[in-house]
Design brief:
Helix content: 25-40%
CATH class of the largest domain: Alpha Beta
CATH topology of the largest domain: Rossmann fold
CATH architecture of the largest domain: 3-Layer(aba) Sandwich
Number of helices: 10
Radius of gyration: 19 Å
Number of strands: 12
């Protein structure tokens, strides 16, 4: 089944050229099926690139997914055309009375600021609180994961002496966990961040379990035990050239940056990078949609509960 997006969204042409099955609103109306409603709160400055990356992964599923794009009202994006936001994005005020099967909160380039210093922090906390009763399962990415862990559990983030930047090996810690179904024992995923969360803080919270981690990059996936909150500290959604564009940007700005580890062949930025995380990225998102959203969310979204998952999960 396809991901359902507006015909005018720039990602549509890109995904169709990649043979990712996308569907317009008119065709979707003729299918006798309830699509999953997934909202994406896009906090990244490169909104079109990020929405395309996430839609690519959501579209690689046997489920029909109806996507709603959200942006914060308290911060005006300087890198995205205003018409694009007006035509394709809503704010929290537009959807606060609605319910969604899933919510994705992206990363944001504000990780070196205290959470409370981020100008849209009050709005973000309102959205995360709203998700407790209006969303069945939430998926938090990178800074979004750090923000969710801090707001929900009080888990702090710590500055790193050097940016965690590159593609790192991870190991699964719970082989029977449905989110990790089909994963290799050792798998790769990209990271791009200046801060970290620490295992000792996560282990103090009885409601959390660590599902995957890296000796070098630390915790990669943590989740609430009821499956309604998935925290991913890396960027499995990244395109083949995303790390390259971040590296080139910082080099051109004269910023201190090292070559992303394990990304270029021989760590030589003159060579074309190889993608070695795509398969597990698709597994991560398809498993989340299948086991943590589709199989447990009520048929009527209005019946989304305020507590945990169904007893048979």
């Amino acid at each position: 089944m396809p991901v359902k997006i507006p015909n005018t969204l720039p990602a549509r042409v890109i995904l169709e050229n990649e043979n990712v099955f996308v569907m317009g609103e008119e065709r979707a109306q003729h299918q006798d099926i309830r699509s999953l409603r997934v909202a994406i709160l896009n906090l990244m400055p490169t909104k079109i690139a990020t929405e395309t990356q996430l839609l690519r992964l959501l579209g690689n599923s046997a489920l029909q997914v109806d996507v709603t794009l959200l942006h914060t009202a308290t911060y005006e994006s300087k890198n995205t055309d205003t018409d694009h936001l007006l035509n394709h994005y809503l704010t929290f005020e537009d959807v606060k009375n609605e319910k969604f099967d899933g919510l994705i909160i992206t990363g944001a380039p504000v990780e070196q600021m205290d959470f409370e210093e981020v100008n849209y922090w009050p709005e973000l906390t309102r959205i995360m609180d709203w998700a407790e009763t209006n969303v069945y399962s939430a998926f938090y990415i990178c800074w979004g994961a750090q923000a969710g862990l801090y707001h929900r559990y009080g888990i702090p983030k710590y500055d790193l002496p050097r940016k965690m930047f590159g593609v790192f090996e991870h190991r699964i810690l719970h082989a029977t966990e449905r989110l990790l179904r089909g994963f290799d024992d050792i798998f790769l995923a990209p990271h791009s961040r200046h801060t970290e969360i620490r295992r000792t803080d996560v282990e103090k919270v009885d409601d959390l379990q660590i599902l995957a981690e890296s000796d070098e990059a630390g915790i990669y996936i943590a989740a609430s035990k009821d499956g309604r909150h998935i925290f991913v500290t890396g960027h499995s959604e990244y395109d083949p050239l995303t790390l390259k564009s971040e590296y080139d940007r910082d080099v051109n700005k004269g910023l201190p940056i090292h070559v992303p580890k394990n990304y270029y062949p021989g760590n030589d930025p003159a060579k074309n990078p190889h993608v070695r995380w795509r398969g597990h990225a698709n597994l991560l998102y398809s498993n989340w949609l299948n086991y943590y959203v589709y199989q447990v969310t009520p048929f009527n979204p209005a019946d989304i509960p305020q507590g945990g998952l169904h007893s048979d999960f």
